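Quick check before the chapter quiz. The format below is the same one you will see on the exam, so make sure you can read both the input and the output lines.
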Amino acid sequence: MRDIVFTRGSGWMPAVVREDGALRLTLGAGADANHEPRTFTFPIGEAHLAVIREDLARHLLLWSAVLPLCDAAGTRGRLDEDAAVALLDPVLLAPPADVDALFRRVPWERGRLVAHGADIGLLDRGQVVAAMRTATETSDGKRAQEDHAQHRRAERGTVLGPLDTALLRYTNQYLHGATVPRRTPGAVDPALLPQVMRVLATAEDACAGLRIGRDPRRGQHATDKRDWTRMETAAETAVRRAHPELADEAVRTVSFLLCSEAADLSRNTPMDDDGHPTRRIPLSFTDDKDTEKTWRQGNSLGATAEFWEFVAARAASDNEVFTIEDEKRGEGIQLHFYADSAARITTLREGRDGADPEYRVEYTLIDGMSGYRSLVAAFVRGGCAGLGEHGPWIPDVTEFERARRRRDAERRGR
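Here is the expected output.
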């Protein structure tokens, strides 16, 4: 039989219950393996209940000190009740100086105290009891998030100026640098907003004409890492040159915003089209799993766009060879994504009377996704005859492998 003896307005704060005639403190913390909240309890005395009932600050301090023990229990472990009980007298009944000394020795949950109104300056100076004079029953989670973000930066040695902070708030990156950035001008001090816009204009001017294309080798929504790096470098170089006083984090948040916006635009734009809707000869697309698809005039997408959609839907770590074939002309290209290379294949003699056909196969190295896009577009436009400028084309396999190894060694040495 369990009866609630005392609880405060916030449902998350530890409550006191009477269970089989004994007082126990109960609190929810952490989660089990199924992500359901865990509940922990441990025994307390009447003197502890009296303090919890009358002194919000001590109640919150006890909560802060017990939470690390709950975290240590994990998803299925038991609470160390002896350790929890050992905190009761030192936190609830000891003089303020002794409580401050205790909090310098044991782990405690700072965010919980900040969220409930603790004076941050006093917390930083180790005066936890005095810091709780401003405590409130209501919780402000955003206040705790901001304090946590400031502490993370302090640990890294990062010092933000007013404009740095304004830029991070504008991009919604001040609290969580891993979130997708977005433009939030309302979060910026109006006096600083014009300066923020000037910094952004500098980056936007530097990125004019740049785009981040899709990379179907990595799926239907992936974008080209090289394009991203190119835009990122252009934005950061321009901003650092024009605004050398900015912290690195502020500079990076500007480039992250522009790159993310460009990537989103690319994901919502159809794949590259060939621009030649009058093409009449069908093309056959195949992958390394013997899947085949035929493009014909009149399809909803052009040949180039449809091929890249085929790649995006099929590419995987064990499916990295794709072919485009023009059977009527007897020619095709094969793309080797695992090796950044390609081959053009031309039929020299058709197979007749049981004889195998004869092919000329030539190889070339490809420089990233942009190289593949150019190669495919050129083949769709003019077949193998239009691929001369995309070489050099190497007919000897051994010579080509040497060239590929040299290229790979140069990449590793960069």
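If your answer matched, good. The radius of gyration is 32 Å.
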